[in-house]
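User: Some background: our group keeps a shared notebook of sequences we're curious about, and every so often someone picks one and asks for a predicted structure to add to the entry. Today it's my turn. The entry only has the sequence so far, pasted here. Could you supply the structure so I can complete it?
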Amino acid sequence: MAAAVLMEQCEHDPKITFSDMLRCLDYGGTIAEMGARCLYVRTGRDGLGWSHAGSNGLPFIVDRRDWESYLHEHFPTEMG
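Assistant: Of course. Here's the predicted structure to add to the notebook entry:
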């Protein structure tokens, strides 16, 4: 349920951090996909967000290491 709330609020609530979204990836399945959707919406990665089901019809990237690498490269100040 918490992942659903994050997904509803991630675009407009700056209190929701990348760390919050990354934590969802640790759970796998639907929760990880919700966290990934939040990350895509917040970062604009690959041009994905609310209007796409996945990257070229493929599932969202839900690998935490991949996302951490991406975030450190593109959002270093927010990653600490």
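Suggested note for the entry: The chain has five helices and no strands. The chain has one domain: 2-79.
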